[in-house]
Amino acid sequence: MSKFTRRDFLGIVKKGLAATGLTALLAPFLTYFYPPSLEETPSEAVRVGKEADIPTGEGVTVPFGRYPALVIHTDQGFRAYSAVCTHFACIVKWDKEEEIIHCPCHEGYFDPYDGSVISGPPPLPLDKIPLTITAGEIFIGGSA
What we know:
Elements lengths: L5 H28 L12 E5 L8 E6 L2 E8 L2 E6 L10 E3 L4 E4 L4 E3 L6 E3 L11 E4 L2 E4 L4
Antiparallel strand pairs: 1-10, 2-3, 3-4, 5-6, 6-7, 7-8, 9-10
């Protein structure tokens, strides 16, 4: 019967640490090729909230599939857009003081009424998302 030595123990520890390090390096690489299954856009309408929860001049960013959506209550009613800038996919924000949609990454500005580019580098307008209001509840996407 052979004796389990200190050298044997350290060899096992070294192999365990090497395996842990290799796993830590490979995990992000593997998740790149096998991302989580998120729908680009949901197939069913997504509830945003009640009309009364978003006063005129306010906007909210809500989860909408893989990317967020921006819902704005303008003086002409509610509008919904993809919150992903068409320049470099930064997340746009609603600036209620200026009443404009702003991309903070490269100073892109979008019109809140139709999503068109006002200024900056974005090449295309924001993607519009269908919006419906049923019994005071706001829904975006889906069969809206």
